[in-house]
Write a structure and sequence with these properties.
heterodimer; A: Beta Polymerase, domain 2; 4 helices; 7 strands; 27% helix; 22% strand; B: four-stranded antiparallel beta sheet; three-stranded antiparallel beta sheet; 16 helices; 9 strands; 50% helix; globular
């Protein structure tokens, strides 16, 4: 099934969804979907008996800063039964990047969406547990964004060793011993 | 127990396993909630090995990314560089010569055997069969020697390049590979003697860490784990690349979805890989084309660089400016040792990638781990972690 036939069946199965065929260099069927219709389209391609895209192979995000709409989410779907691949893309604005979570459709989406949130700062509405996945929890910023600074030169911070006299050292020991009694 | 003894106070215990634990294959951390020895809930924490390879790749030229991606999944380095090169070649519209395709198939299959041997050795050791580890590493050493012969580097050869290979095959390569292929099947029988009907091993692995067919697909575990659950999906079969459709091989599957099935599937895969290697070795001539004849990606031969001005300029441009890849995006999946592996590459038409996204099978396997161990015993956690064959470098990237 080629991309044109696929879009035809999408228009039948998910009425009202704004879907357009996208050009693809590598020959994989690719469609663009409006963010508001994304979940309906994904649910349709997963459940439709003629498509059965039961596997979410990967979720990639691309930042096209400074172009707007800035983010592009790419869902790589595989139909195991039919031996077909499909790429579903959606574009998100930079100011308020959020889209419905697909974690209810595929358990695989859970960590994939957490990774995108972590590295790009795209919010997935309805995600059960949207925390950072790879970066530490107190990290500031989203490192894979194109406006995130790279190769920052920082002067190394050093600290001088603490100097204590012998009298202070003995007093410290004594205080420590007393506090433990 | 609790019901028969009223008034007895019981509570669950939370146990932290890892990140520094010898059997978590690197730095995987599991927080387990235990009721006695039974696991009530589990959650995995990853990211301890996050090195930002995808971000670094955006700062590098296209050909500089190859050594980077080889270090993601460090047990199957050449599957990574193969997947990356194939995506870039698709974007540039390059067709590599037939000889290069067969050499790549041979390298990819040897890499699969290599990775499965490490897996079998470590997994065997973790469930108590230490001798298997020693045997597997013995045979793996021979594969590393072949890598060294091929590229001068044992773990990360960077031999596969965009547009072909780095250089031609070394002298004596065919003999070395043939010798290994003659040796391995007998050794595989030896490993199977140690494990397949070993009462202790079978008791520890059969019915443990079960994942159903539908769950495996929904969790994205396409690869040996899904094949052990009865999903006969193999990228080499379903989306053939490099001429795999002309080769004769089986896709082993098992219906049960437990740790024992994953063991059987991987051992059978090694035998199939030997079969594939034998077929392609016959098709590779000792010398011949080792890269596509395209001045955009392939440097001119050295004797021309030293004698011809144009060749010198071309060489200089290739190594200072790098390869220019037309704008677009491509994703070409390959079957790595851990499942479908691929790189979604986006180019803006310059000499540096705009975005490189790795599909990492280990990440999804790690995610599904909690599903496989909840309800089981804590002693089985080690067997299950071993069976899903995660490489933390690939999980965290």
């Amino acid at each position: 099934m080629d991309a044109t036939a696929l879009i035809g069946s999408l228009a039948e199965g998910a009425p009202g969804a704004r879907v357009e065929q996208a050009p693809s260099v590598d020959g994989q069927p690719t469609v663009f979907v409006e963010p508001a219709d994304l979940l309906a389209v994904l649910a349709f391609v997963r459940d439709a008996p003629t498509l059965r895209f039961s596997c979410l192979a990967d979720l990639a995000a691309v930042d096209f800063w400074p172009r707007e709409p800035r983010f592009e989410l790419v869902y790589h779907l595989v139909s195991i039964d039919l031996g077909q691949r499909l790429r579903v893309k959606t574009r998100l604005a930079g100011s308020d990047a959020h889209v419905a979570s697909a974690a209810s459709l595929w358990p695989a989406a859970d960590w994939l969406e957490r990774e995108v949130w972590d590295l790009f700062g795209v919010v997935f509405d309805g995600h059960p547990d949207l925390r950072r996945l790879l970066m530490p929890e107190d990290w500031e910023g989203h490192p894979l964004r194109k406006d995130y600074p790279v190769q920052i030169r920082m002067t190394p911070r050093t600290s001088e060793p603490v100097q204590v006299t012998e009298a202070e050292f003995r007093a410290n020991l004594q205080r420590d011993r007393l506090s433990r009694q | 127990m609790t019901a028969s003894m009223p008034g007895l106070r019981t509570e669950t215990m939370t146990v932290n396993m890892g990140p520094q634990h010898p059997s978590t294959h690197g730095v995987l951390r599991l927080v387990l909630e235990l009721d006695g020895e039974t696991i009530r809930s589990a959650s995995a924490t990853i990211g301890y090995l996050h090195t930002g390879i995808e971000k670094t790749a955006e700062q590098k030229k296209w050909q500089q990314v190859i050594p980077l991606v080889e270090r993601m999944d460090y047990l199957s380095a050449q599957s990574n560089s193969l997947a990356f090169s194939m995506s870039v070649e698709r974007l540039m519209g390059l067709e590599v010569p037939e000889r290069v395709r067969w050499i790549r198939v041979l390298i990819a299959e040897l890499q699969r055997i290599n990775s499965h041997l490490v897996w079998l050795g470590t997994h065997g050791m973790e469930v108590g069969a230490v001798s298997v580890m020693l045997y597997c590493f013995r045979e793996r050493e021979l594969l590393l020697n072949i890598n060294e012969m091929l590229a001068g580097f044992r773990m990360f050869p960077s031999y596969i390049r965009i547009g072909g290979l780095r250089e031609d095959l070394p002298r004596g390569f065919h003999e070395a590979v043939r010798e290994f292929l003659d040796r391995l099947p007998g050794k595989l029988d030896e490993y199977e003697d140690l494990l397949t009907k070993n009462e202790i091993y079978v008791e520890r692995t059969r019915g443990v860490g079960v994942i159903s067919k539908d769950d495996a697909v929904a969790c994205g575990l396409v690869g040996p784990i899904a094949r052990a659950s009865g999903v006969s999906y193999d990228v080499r079969r379903v989306f053939p690349y490099l001429g795999y459709d002309a080769l004769d091989f089986e896709v082993p599957t098992r219906p049960d979805g437990d740790v024992y099935s994953r063991y059987l599937v991987r051992v059978a895969e090694m035998r199939e890989s030997v079969k594939i290697c034998r077929q392609v070795l016959e098709r590779i001539s000792p010398t011949g084309a080792y890269a596509v004849d395209d001045p955009r990606v392939t440097p001119p031969p050295k004797h021309k660089v030293y004698t011809e001005m144009e060749a010198l300029i071309q060489h200089f441009l290739l190594y200072s400016q790098g390869i220019t890849v037309p704008a677009g995006e491509a994703y070409v999946p390959v079957e790595g040792p851990r499942g479908e592996q691929g790189f979604y590459v986006v180019s803006d038409g310059t000499n540096r990638p705009w975005r490189v996204k790795a599909r990492s099978p280990s990440l999804l396997a790690c995610q599904a781990l909690a599903r496989m161990i909840v309800g089981g015993m804590i002693a089985d956690v080690i067997a299950v972690i071993g069976s899903i064959d995660v490489v933390m470098g690939d999980v965290d990237r």
